[in-house]
Amino acid sequence: MLHNRKHFLMWRRQVFVRNPNDQLNTLFATATGGTGIYLIGCAAEIVYVGQSWNIRERPLESLGRVYHRVSDTSLPWSLALAPCSRDEMDERESTAIRAYAPRFNTSIPSIPKSEGRMPEIVGVAAVFQDQSDTCGAFQPDNLRQQMEKARVMSDLPWRQGKQRKKSGKPAQPRKSKMQTAPTQPAKLSEAELEELLLHYGVPADGPLVYPVNLCDDGSVINNDGEYLGTWSMDEYEHPSFTPDGAEQALLSHVLVGLLCYDIRDWHAKQQHTETE
User: Fold this and answer.
1) Burial degree of 246 (CB within 10 A; 0-12, 13-18, 19+)
2) Do residues 251 and 266 touch, judged by C-beta distance below 8 A?
3) DSSP letter string over 192-221?
4) Pick from 100, 45, 106, 42: which is nearest to 68 by CA?
5) What's the burial of 154, exposed, middle or buried (CB within 10 Å: 0-12/13-18/19+)?
6) The pTM is what?
7) Given Cys at both, which of 9, 50, 196, 207 links 233, Cβ 3.0 to 4.6 Å?
8) What is the pLDDT of residue 3?
9) What is the mean pLDDT of residues 136-141?
10) Dihedrals φ, ψ of 77, to 5°?
11) pLDDT band at 174 (very low <50, low <70, confident <90, very high)
């Protein structure tokens, strides 16, 4: 991937003035379908969400466009990929943009679709070689904070972008005569939580296509058919995993895809411990 001539010139012509991290090659190898969503993180926040029919190439091009718009480019950057079909891309990108309100997303593909399914991230990589690890943007606490902030944000980036297009001038923050207290995110009912299991879960009686399958009956099964435990959603639509035999959740995340990634790592460690 990094031997692509276009990307080679991006590094060599000092678009970034930093060398690529080897983690990128591993990350792009997971994008077997070629289409899907990508999320760019800088420091502790997601700054851009995009979609592409070629998510092995487009993310770095988008990074090149937003990189110098950040005041301190020496900050750590990360890239996350969420492969999906072409039919799903508008819904998943729109939902992620509404959920996180990234500062550089000045448009949203589909407002009606922006309350659909979130991207299911399969991996995250550090972008630059001088980073010791990935940035904090995809850590659960930071993802939650960004979502909470987006819920109460009055001047959303895509609304500002729409205002700029109409006037030809940068949008000015709206002035309010009365300050209102931030609203708390609405909690989901038990019935709505059950619907989420059906919405996000894969069919329990269907093919086990993923390394870790969060099934619509609440079970967690790997692609070898091994039962690992159960999963559930909390009142803020954050998934968690409880191992078989445990009484309390062990792992949680704000994204289903990253929870699967954590469960896979946990299970691998369990197997390694048992063989010692």
Assistant:
1) exposed
2) yes
3) HHHHHHHHHSBPTTS---SSEEEBTTSEEE
4) 42
5) exposed
6) 0.68
7) 196
8) 46
9) 91
10) -125, 150
11) very low
